[in-house]
């Protein structure tokens, strides 16, 4: 019997509470990276689509900003319940379009829900300050207000968590929102929008426009969009920060990373190797908090490396929906090729290859095995660049001071960890390392929703970070009211 061709679904934008077809004629394939199957087609929307979304969002903002904050928060409570009920379905969607393991996807959903829970505290978070008698008969109060339409631009590696860093808080404090998800992972965000509607969010408060640079430029240039939250790579983040600022918008841009983990002679090697394997190779190394470099004290280096290599050889690679899989595919064929180019560069520049990921490629999906290089130096490209793939570099150092010197040479400063039982070393590390998020005896020091996601140097452009109280400040502005009440004499 002849095979019947099944037409792949074309996605629609979500504007004003409706699924609307983009005006574009250009669509891009969305893949399941574990099978190479095309699972949807995403529109590369136009500036006109952004114009429409911005008009709708501006109108919605004018009504939404005066809804009492407690009522807005109740919608987020509903949303939290719905997301929790759909946890497994959401995680399956993440694994389907991103490739990470189901357990990591479930973890990501949990992180996203935490952001919604934090944002549901908006009534308390929005409180201002006041002082009853700042001068004779004069009092001062400080009120927070939403700022307008917010644009959010997200990467492919956390299709749920990263958008949830943005829109729950933005809308809880009274703004409206336009999300541009990554064109590589658009399916999960469809479900996020559907559930927001079910939670009772009025139409137009949250909108979603799929696409790539045309949508980003439309958001950056639109006069009604007052602030931009960006998460993605360094070159694009720099571009977004510059162009958004030039257009006089508030911009926060969370960008690339090259995270170093320090292992000292007194570290618990079992704990250190287990955590480092997970940090470097979980999510196929496609995490902004992934460990890319280990600086290990020479005294323990051979022992550490032999355990690490042993464990790396036992890593199960495969479809993230299968039990026991740690290492899924990278996102696209071009990312796999780029990873291979970096591995070749590492060899060419003189690093010692001790585990070669090229030996574990699989053509069923965009799979490349874990790679480890020893004797890496800070002159090498594999140390300098963010590879964003399962490639780990090891640098042997004399002591903690040298380990910190190596890490601080990097242009990035997102996260850094130390494995040691020495309290003085931990304190020295905390005081001297250049990084915004530190881990002590753990591998992925990603802060929870209540704290800022606070990269430094080329890992972040802006002032106020995502999450925590920073996010309340970023999505609001303040009115400070100074009032004089001429006091009659009551005596
Ligand atoms: P990316 O920069 O390629 O894409 C991010 C967003 O920008 C996407 O929505 C994409 O469509 C858009 N974009 C891409 N190229 C563009 C261009 N030329 N002009 C305008 N817009 C463009 O990033 P990615 O590959 O999706 O994600 C991986 C990167 O994100 C890594 O560098 C990673 O470190 C970073 N990241 C950082 C954090 C953090 O908190 N610092 C968190 C997650 C991911």
What features would you describe in this structure?
This protein has two domains: 273 residues, Aldehyde Dehydrogenase, Chain A, domain 1 (3-Layer(aba) Sandwich), CATH 3.40.605; 182 residues, Aldehyde Dehydrogenase, Chain A, domain 2, CATH 3.40.309.10. It has a seven-stranded mixed beta sheet, with helices on both faces. A six-stranded mixed beta sheet has the order 9-8-7-10-11-21, with helices on both faces. A three-stranded antiparallel beta sheet has the order 5-6-22. Helix 2 packs antiparallel against helix 4. It has 491 residues and is of the alpha/beta class. The chain is globular and about 80 Å long.
| CATH superfamily label of the largest domain | Aldehyde Dehydrogenase, Chain A, domain 1
Distance between the termini: 101 Å
Strand proportion: 15-25%
The averaged pLDDT comes out at 97
* Low-pLDDT regions: none
The total of beta strands comes to 22
CATH topology of the largest domain: Aldehyde Dehydrogenase, Chain A, domain 1
> What is the CATH C-level name of the largest domain?
Alpha Beta
Strand order of the largest sheet: 14-15-16-13-12-18-19
Per CATH, the architecture of the largest domain is 3-Layer(aba) Sandwich
If helices are DSSP runs of H or I spanning 4 or more residues, what is the number of helices?
A: 16
Q: Main beta sheet: strand number and arrangement?
A: 7 strands, mixed
Structural class: alpha/beta
What percent of residues adopt helix (DSSP H or I)?
Answer: 25-40%
Q: What oligomeric arrangement do these chains adopt?
A: single chain
Radius of gyration: 24 Å
Q: What hetero molecules are in the model?
A: nicotinamide-adenine-dinucleotide
């Amino acid at each position: 019997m002849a095979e019947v061709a099944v037409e792949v679904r074309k996605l629609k934008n979500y504007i004003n509470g409706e699924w609307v077809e983009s005006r574009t004629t250009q669509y891009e394939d969305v893949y399941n990276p574990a099978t190479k199957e095309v699972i949807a087609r995403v529109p590369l929307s136009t500036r006109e689509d952004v114009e429409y979304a911005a008009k709708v969002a501006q109108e919605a903002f004018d009504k939404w900003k005066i809804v009492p904050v407690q009522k807005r928060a109740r919608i987020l409570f509903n949303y939290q319940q719905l997301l929790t009920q759909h946890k497994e379905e959401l995680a399956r969607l993440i694994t389907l379009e991103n490739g990470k393991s189901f357990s990591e996807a479930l973890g990501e959903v949990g992180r996203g829900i935490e952001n919604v829970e934090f944002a549901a505290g908006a009534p308390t978070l929005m409180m201002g300050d006041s002082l009853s008698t700042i001068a004779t008969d004069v009092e001062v109060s400080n009120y927070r207000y939403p700022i307008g339409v917010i644009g959010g631009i997200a990467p492919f590696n956390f299709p749920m968590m990263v958008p949830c860093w943005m829109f729950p808080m933005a809308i809880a404090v009274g703004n409206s929102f336009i999300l541009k998800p990554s064109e590589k992972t658009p399916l999960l965000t469809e479900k996020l929008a559907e559930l927001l509607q079910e939670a009772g969010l009025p139409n137009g408060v949250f909108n979603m426009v799929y696409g790539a640079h045309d949508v980003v430029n439309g958001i950056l240039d639109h006069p009604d969009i007052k602030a931009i939250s960006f998460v993605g790579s360094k070159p694009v983040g720099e571009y977004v920060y510059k162009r958004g600022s030039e257009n006089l918008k508030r911009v926060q841009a969370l960008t690339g990373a090259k995270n170093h983990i320090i292992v000292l002679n007194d570290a618990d090697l079992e704990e250190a190797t287990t955590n480092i394997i997970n940090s470097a190779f979980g999510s196929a190394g496609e995490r902004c908090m992934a460990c890319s470099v280990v600086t290990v004290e020479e005294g323990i280096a051979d022992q550490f490396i032999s355990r690490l290599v042993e464990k790396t050889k036992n890593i199960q690679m495969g479809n993230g929906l299968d039990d026991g899989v740690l290492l899924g595919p990278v996102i696209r064929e071009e990312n796999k090729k780029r990873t291979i180019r970096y591995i070749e560069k590492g060899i060419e520049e003189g690093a010692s290859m001790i585990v070669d990921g090229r030996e574990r490629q699989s053509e069923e999906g965009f799979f490349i095995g874990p790679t480890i290089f020893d004797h890496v130096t800070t002159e090498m490209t594999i140390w300098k660049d963010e590879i964003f793939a399962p490639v780990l570099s090891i640098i042997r150092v004399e002591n903690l001071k040298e380990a910190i010197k190596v890490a601080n040479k990097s242009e990035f400063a997102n996260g850094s960890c130390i494995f040691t039982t020495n309290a003085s070393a931990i304190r020295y590390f905390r005081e001297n390392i250049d990084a915004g998020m530190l881990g002590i005896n753990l591998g992925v020091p990603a802060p929870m929703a209540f704290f800022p996601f606070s990269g430094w140097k080329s890992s972040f452009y802006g002032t106020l970070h995502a999450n925590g109280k920073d996010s309340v400040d970023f999505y609001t502005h303040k009115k400070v009211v100074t009032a004089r009440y001429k006091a009659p004499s009551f005596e």
